[in-house]
Write a structure and sequence with these properties.
The protein is mainly α. 80% of the residues lie in helices and 0% in strands.
Length: 421
């Protein structure tokens, strides 16, 4: 393989993946366990705990589904992308800082939703920056590097937080104070690694501002929805993405909560998720580099099938070693399925409208696991068996793969027609 060197601007863009991934890891590992403690104090059952955590994730997604396209459309105006990015980042960071002082489980979930909305909304803008910071032919590998370094970089604040939560009592730090410090460490890490991108990013692609920018933004958003409906290769890919990435993010959002509900060791769950991050780093880099030899769409299809296998295995999970096995398997494919989905989409949309299009992409993407998390919690409550809820995820990957294969065929036909023109 040819040696690949990142430009300074690509490195600055990747640094935000390193920063925000710390929050991602926190909300998928330590935070569900902390919420479990708050819930248990008020006598909540394991089934209800898992359901309420899933419902909170679903509410977050619905809010972002509404705000994402609007923020993305405004970010396409001249010099607006960075401003909106900073605004959403501030909301997320303040929410993260506030989580440790919430008095009960309900208020904790409210602030959690606010923090995650800020985080998810910032990613709408961040993903749309990909067209500005690199060239089309470099997108697959740059996107893969972002996820790869995000995974390994997030291990630093996570290990610090883990030492505080698990070992703080030995030096006189209460559990409540340890969690509060963990939230602060994560927030500061997040901000620190956001600064290079904030300082150096310049918006290249944009749409011209008109006399009534607010009205025009909503008009353009309507046009974007219609354009997507007409361009079947984009529309069908978004359908596929909705289902398979919903499954991916349901696994990310619910894995520790699922393990808790099954009665697995909290320490074991946290360490297993740390292994996921470590495995994900070289895996995302390697599979990203393979796009030089193989079509990114082929590698992406393999990762969807791999996740289908992971979901099937998770249905019967009831031992700690099985959770560890799944943690390694998720690590092998998690970064690649996210990175190549992002770069594939960026290559099939108009770069000057990337904010609008990524706003719609985010409805199905980052944090958009409302269907999976809600159905997983609902099925668990209705049946009294949390494992049966995982079957929902299996179905999502099957549907997602079918649509994905169709989207690839449509895109090949579209590119062939473009060459003829």
């Amino acid at each position: 393989m040819k040696k690949f060197t990142l430009s300074k601007l690509e490195k600055h863009w990747i640094s935000y993946d390193v920063g925000n991934s710390a929050f991602t890891l926190l909300i998928t590992t330590i935070m569900p366990i902390y919420f479990s403690g708050l819930a248990q104090k008020e006598g909540m059952s394991a089934v209800d705990y898992l359901a309420y955590w899933g419902y909170a994730a679903s509410v977050t997604t619905l809010i972002v589904a509404f705000l994402g396209p609007i923020l993305g459309t405004f970010s396409d105006l001249p010099q607006m992308r960075k401003k909106i990015f900073i605004g959403t980042l501030v909301v997320g960071v303040i929410g993260c800082l506030s989580l440790g002082i919430m008095p009960d489980w309900f208020m904790f979930l409210v602030v959690f939703v606010i923090a995650k909305v800020g985080y998810s909304a910032s990613l709408v803008v961040y993903d749309s920056m990909l067209s500005d910071i690199t060239k089309n032919e470099r997108m697959d590998i740059v996107s893969s590097y972002g996820y790869a370094y995000g995974y390994i970089g997030s291990c630093v604040p996570f290990v610090i937080s883990l030492l505080l939560v698990l070992g703080g009592s030995k030096v006189g730090i209460s559990t409540g104070l340890a969690m509060n410090l963990a939230f602060w460490v994560t927030a500061l890490w997040w901000v620190g690694f956001s600064l290079p991108l904030i300082k150096n990013y310049q918006q290249i692609y944009f749409v011209k501002s008109k006399a009534q920018p607010v009205k025009d933004s909503f008009v353009r958003l309507g046009h974007t929805f219609r354009d997507i409906a007409k361009n079947k290769h984009v529309f069908v890919f978004l359908l596929a993405f909705f289902f398979y990435i919903d499954g991916v993010y349901t696994i990310i959002a619910m894995s520790v909560a699922y393990g808790q509900a099954l009665g697995l060791s909290s320490t074991g769950l946290l360490l297993a998720l740390l292994v996921t991050q470590i495995v994900a780093f070289p895996s995302a880099l390697l599979l990203g580099r393979l796009t030089h030899k193989f079509k990114a769409s082929r590698i992406l299809g393999i990762t969807i099938l791999a996740y289908l296998g992971i979901a099937i295995f998770a249905v019967q999970l009831n031992h700690q070693w099985e959770f560890w096995f799944l943690a390694v398997m998720v690590g092998l494919f998690q970064g690649t399925i996210q990175a190549l989905s992002r770069s594939y989409y960026a290559k099939i949309i108009p770069p000057e409208k990337s904010g609008e299009y990524f706003g719609i992409y985010d409805i199905c993407g980052k944090g958009a696991s409302f269907l999976g998390t809600a159905l997983m919690g609902f099925v668990g409550q209705m049946t009294g068996n949390v494992s049966l809820g995982v079957i929902v995820i299996v179905v999502m990957f099957v549907i997602g793969f079918i649509f994905f294969r169709k989207a690839i065929q449509l895109n090949e036909h579209y590119e062939e027609n473009e060459r003829k023109v």
